[in-house]
Every structure is written in C-alpha cells, then in structure tokens.
C-alpha cells in the first residue's frame, strides 16, 4: 500500500513531465496507444480500455501501483472505449508484424544511406534495398532492374502519365484512360490537358469493366499512353489486363500503364503475360509501410519517361532523391510475404466475402452489389442499400470503420464518380458502402458487421417515408415531387 | 552432430509458435498468426481438418523436413519479437473482443494476468473477470443495443 506522502510526491514529480505529455497526447481517444510515454516498463498492464480515463485531472488520479510500477486501475470509461473493427482495407492495410520486424533494424542500427558507396553503412543498406527490389520484381514477374522506388502509387501514376506524355510530346498528343480511374490518374490527365494533350476518358460498362471495342476505337496514331487500373479501389472489379495488353501490343508506340496498387499481392500479376509497360505499386496496400511505392518501367523494349524530379540521379535517373531504405525494405518484405500468402489470403478473403454477402443479402431486400459479380477482387465489396442515406448509415455504424467510397472522395457529400460511371443513379451512389476485407479480418468481425448493418438499415428504413411508400407498392419513379 | 527432427521437435515448435501468437495484443494479428501457423503445419504434414496425416505429406522427405523446421524456427523468432513490439504499443480492444478486466496477479503484464493467474479485481462481479481464450467469439450480450428489430 502506498502512503499518502508517496502519492503526493509522485504527482508533483510527474507534474512537469505531465504537461509535456499532455501536449503530445492525441486528442482522439480511440486512436491513442496506451500512453507509451508514461510507461514504467515496456509492458503497460494497466492500460487499455479498462484503465482510468486519460483526460481526468492529474491530481484526481491516485492510481494504485504495484511493486513493479504498473498502473492496475480497473475502471471502465464512461463511453465505450473500444475500437471499431477495421473494414477499410482499400484505404490502407495494417502493417504486417513480420514486415515491421524486418524494418526495425533499418530504423535503428543500420541507418546508412543506400547510395553511399564508400563505407559499410551504405553497402549494407544498398544490399537490403536491392534485395527488396528483387522481391517486388518477383511478385510481378519483372526484373529487379525495372523497379523504381517512389513515395507511393500516386507519385508512380504521376510519373508514368506525365513522364511518358511529356517525353513523347513532339510526336504524340493523346492519352487514353477510363472514367473509373483513381483520382490521381484523372488529375494527372487533366493537368496534361492543360499542357495541350487530348485525353479520352473511356466509359465503362455497367459491371465496371472497360470494353475492348471502345478502347480500340479510341486509339489514335498519336496515342502515347493508355492507363487502365488493374483493380478498382471502390468497386473491386478486375479489368481484363491480359486482353488489353494483347490489344495494345498490336499498335506500335503505345505504352500501357496500369495502376496496380490494389492488385499487387492480391491477384496474380505478370508484366510479361499482360504486356504491361508501366505499373504503379504501393506499399501500404499490401500490408507494407506507408510512404513507399514503386513504378515498374519496362527496359526491353525500353520505355523512356521524363523524370518529375531533378537531382542526384538515383533510380536510373528517373526518380532522384534518397531511397528510404527502411520503407523500401519493408515494402520488399511485404511483397515476399504477399507472394507466399497470396493463394491462402485469396481463399480466406473469398470465404469471408461470401459470409458477408450471405449475411447481408440474405437478411435485407433492395441491396445492390456494385460492379461485376465475377471479375472482382473479393476483398473489395461495394454494396448499395436502397432508401438509406449512406452518410447516416456510416454515422450509425460507429462500431465499424467503413467508408462509402475512396478515402479521398468520402469527405465530400458528392456521390462517388466511380458509381456514377457505372450508370448507378445518384440515390444508389449515395447509399453505397465499401467493405474492405484484409488478411487479418476474422469471421467474428464479419458477423458483427452483418448484425450491425442489418439492424441499422432496418432502423433507418423504418424511419423513412420512402421505404413506407415502397412497402405500399408505390413506384417512386412515378411520384411527382412538388417543390 | 545433429539429431533427426522427429514428431516431438515439430510439436514443441508448433506449441511455441502458437504460444507466441497468443501474445499479440492486437486481436487481428493474434488470430491471424494462430490460423496461419495451424495452416502451415497442417499443409506441411498433410493433415486435413479432420483425420490423420496422409502418407504423401511433404514431411516424409528429410530435406523438406529440415527446411520446414528451419523456416518455422525463423518464423518463431519473428513472431515472438513482433508480438513483443505489438504489446509495447498496445491500443484499445476492439468491439468484437470480450471485455476483459485486468487482474492484479503476477504483475507480469496483460497476457499473464488474463490467463487466469490473477485474482478477480472485483469479487462481487466475478463475471467481469471472465477472460476469453484467444479464439473468442462474438459476445452477443455486448451487442444487445444493436437494433435488431427484424429477423
């Protein structure tokens, strides 16, 4: 038992440090780690959801400490302190613990610059980075020398579209892409339009797939690059890359770029089979670290691009700037694991997706699966719940971390442009939810989300006058709305 | 001199792997590694979910066996380190996990006390100390607030 004096001393002693601690504590309670700053030892037994609230007055907490200095307070917070389950694997995936383990030495002891040529710090970093490069190349059937490290898939996409278009600008002035691409591709294309290029935004069919005939019709003699993503980030459809690659191979001088950020490590990708010239890859979508990505640039036949960055000429002069060795090595390890686990993960995620669909579609009417039913990556399922507002659905689902679309567009209330490109009407596009299943998702989480969704949708529909009208058999499209 | 790897070596390694997997404080990682280890061993030994090892398992070849053993030894090192790091930066529990009151016994951290070594903090409500094994299921009572008015 602690004496009052000791408690007094403890609290005054920690007062000075407490202020600084408070400054760096996160304000969002749900996202805080259990106060690693204040830990007496590395394992904080008294932390977590059951400890005393962190925002109480410092003096009011007289935490019983056992002889090891552990805080063993066992009080529940008043509000539910538990974290929601994560079903947003398209926004980002958790870092695989094995990847973190691989990265830690490069964050601590082996801090050399991989481009240093004169000492062991540099050599070992270079070896690590080259090994990672080989793992990444191995996952997409490429040669290690074809891989350029970037800061992420956004940079890789920018580099490909702007780089190829600008390099060929004297002869070729045309770019082809699709309406359902990621924002960074569409925005790069818009930028190129301002620089005087013509851009064709191909429409997609109602299942989200691009039509090969449409693509062939859009090709012009001055087309320099065609950019079509592998797996869509909102609806998960897999584009027929092999067929597109074969088609484009017939036309000389057209470069085929694909944004494979969502496909890497999830479906088999091969740059040789698919005749891909440039491929954008991202680390944090395959359980790797954030802040690193790569661009595959074909060397035979050589694809020439105008670099975005000028500088020291690293990465074959295409991307100057020091390669972040720990991140690149983590990305490589994530690819190595991804190659080993791809089949297992895919089987597992397919089972979970079926469980999700059976649960939701079995219990609710008027649920629409957006995108193709067959050519789809099972880890990304986009459902629309008719007569329910997507945002209110998300608000009510505070136990589940879900998104209504891609992370960059979900902040706006605009319906997803991807769903509109599929021909979905605005109301359906407004009521969509994207379920991202990762290798770490469990059956219990799927069951929980099914229960929650069914409950919330039923509740919201019970409140909705539209739903009442539908139940009475009124076709909403025939209603003349006044005002 | 090396001894041949036998059933006991493999079982011990398997148990050690599963034990280190339970030490992740993150629910998802814990479950993933438990499942993954089980899968890896079953696949290697040719054990189907129900039944005996099949005779054509990869384990019958000593070279395969040594490679597998080494691979899983490395995996054990990685998983134990990763679990330790994961515990250091432990976050709040997920809504799918059963609430688990940390008891004061042992003082050796969450995994020791939750395993049943400690005494209940509140003897009046022993149910609150009911810890779950790593294979927890959804606690239906915890979600009774979910408005399941249909079905």
UniProtKB/TrEMBL annotation, chain A:
Reaction it catalyzes: (sulfur carrier)-H + L-cysteine = (sulfur carrier)-SH + L-alanine
GO molecular function terms noted in the UniProt entry: cysteine desulfurase activity; iron-sulfur cluster binding; metal ion binding; pyridoxal phosphate binding
SUPFAM superfamilies registered for this protein in UniProt: PLP-dependent transferases (SSF53383)
Cofactor: pyridoxal 5'-phosphate
Region (Disordered) residue spans: 29-50
GO cellular component terms, semicolon-separated: L-cysteine desulfurase complex; mitochondrion; nucleus
Pfam families: Aminotran_5
Enzyme class (EC, first level): transferase
This enzyme's EC code(s): 2.8.1.7
Positions of the Aminotransferase class V domain: 85-448
Superkingdom of the source species: Eukaryota
GO BP term (any one): [2Fe-2S] cluster assembly
Keywords, ordered alphabetically: Iron, Iron-sulfur, Metal-binding, Pyridoxal phosphate, Transferase
Listed HAMAP family: Cys_desulf_IscS
Name of protein: cysteine desulfurase
From TrEMBL, chain B:
A GO cellular component annotation in the UniProt record: L-cysteine desulfurase complex
Region (Disordered): 105-151
Membrane spanning residue stretches: none
Any one of the GO BP annotations: iron-sulfur cluster assembly
Record domain Complex 1 LYR protein: where: 10-43
Superkingdom as given in the UniProt entry: Eukaryota
Name listed for the protein in its UniProt record: Complex 1 LYR protein domain-containing protein
Organism: Wallemia mellicola (strain ATCC MYA-4683 / CBS 633.66)
């Amino acid at each position: 038992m602690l004496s009052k004096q000791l408690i007094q001393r403890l609290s005054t002693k920690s007062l000075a440090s407490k202020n600084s601690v408070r400054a760096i504590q996160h304000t969002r309670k749900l996202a805080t780690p259990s106060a690693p700053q204040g830990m007496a030892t590395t394992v904080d037994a008294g932390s977590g959801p059951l400890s005393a609230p962190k925002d109480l007055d410092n003096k009011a907490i007289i935490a019983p400490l056992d002889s090891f200095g552990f805080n063993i307070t066992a009080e529940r917070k008043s509000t539910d302190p538990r974290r929601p389950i994560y079903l947003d694997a398209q926004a980002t995936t958790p870092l695989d613990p094995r990847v973190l383990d691989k990265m830690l030495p490069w964050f601590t002891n082996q801090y050399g610059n991989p481009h240093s040529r004169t000492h062991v710090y540099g050599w070992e970093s270079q070896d690590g980075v080259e090994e990672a490069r080989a793992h990444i190349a191995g996952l997409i059937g490429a040669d290690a020398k074809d891989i350029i490290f970037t800061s992420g898939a956004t940079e890789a996409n920018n580099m490909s579209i702007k780089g190829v278009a600008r390099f060929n600008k004297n002869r070729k002035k045309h770019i082809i892409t699709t309406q359902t691409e990621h924002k960074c591709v569409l925005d790069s294309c818009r930028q190129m339009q301002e620089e005087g290029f013509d851009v064709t935004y191909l429409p997609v069919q109602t299942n989200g797939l691009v039509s090969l005939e449409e693509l062939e019709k859009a090709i012009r003699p001055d087309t320099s690059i065609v950019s079509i993503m592998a797996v869509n980030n909102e609806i998960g459809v897999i584009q027929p890359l092999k067929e597109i690659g074969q088609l484009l191979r017939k036309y000389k001088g057209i470069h085929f770029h694909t944004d494979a950020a969502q496909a890497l490590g999830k479906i088999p990708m091969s740059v040789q089979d698919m005749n891909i010239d440039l491929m954008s890859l991202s680390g944090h979508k395959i359980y790797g670290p954030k802040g690193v990505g790569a661009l595959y640039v074909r060397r035979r036949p050589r694809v020439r691009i105008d670099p975005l960055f000028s500088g020291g000429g690293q990465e074959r002069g295409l991307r100057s700037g020091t390669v972040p060795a720990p991140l690149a090595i983590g990305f490589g390890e994530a690819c190595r694991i991804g190659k080993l686990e791809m089949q297992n993960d895919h089987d597992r995620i397919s089972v979970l997706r079926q469980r999700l669909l059976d649960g939701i579609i079995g219990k609710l009417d008027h649920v629409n699966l957006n995108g193709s039913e067959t050519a789809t990556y099972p880890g990304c399922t986009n459902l629309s719940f008719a007569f329910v507002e997507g945002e209110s659905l998300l608000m009510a689902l505070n136990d589940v971390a879900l998104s209504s679309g891609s992370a960059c567009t979900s902040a706006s209330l605009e319906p997803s442009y991807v769903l509109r490109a599929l021909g979905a009407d605005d109301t359906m596009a407004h009521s969509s939810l994207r379920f991202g299943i990762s290798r770490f998702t469990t059956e219990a989480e799927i069951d929980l989300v099914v229960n929650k969704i069914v409950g919330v949708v039923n509740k919201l529909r019970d409140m909705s006058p539209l739903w009442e009208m539908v139940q009475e058999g009124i076709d909403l499209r025939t209603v003349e709305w006044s005002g | 001199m090396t001894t041949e790897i036998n059933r006991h070596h493999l079982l011990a390694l398997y148990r050690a792997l599963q034990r280190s997997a339970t030490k992740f404080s993150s629910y998802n990682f814990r479950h993933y590694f438990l499942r993954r280890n089980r899968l890896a061993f079953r696949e290697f030994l040719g054990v189907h979910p129900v039944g005996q090892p099949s005779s054509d398992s990869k384990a019958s070849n000593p070279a395969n066996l040594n490679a597998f053993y080494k691979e899983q030894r490395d995996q054990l090192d990685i998983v134990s380190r990763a679990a330790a790091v994961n515990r250091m930066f432990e976050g709040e529990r997920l809504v799918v996990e059963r609430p688990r009151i940390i008891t004061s016994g042992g003082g050796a951290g969450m995994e020791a006390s939750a395993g049943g070594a400690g005494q209940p903090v509140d003897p009046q409500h022993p149910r609150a100390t009911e810890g779950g094994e790593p294979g927890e299921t959804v606690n239906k009572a915890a979600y009774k607030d979910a408005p399941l008015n249909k079905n």
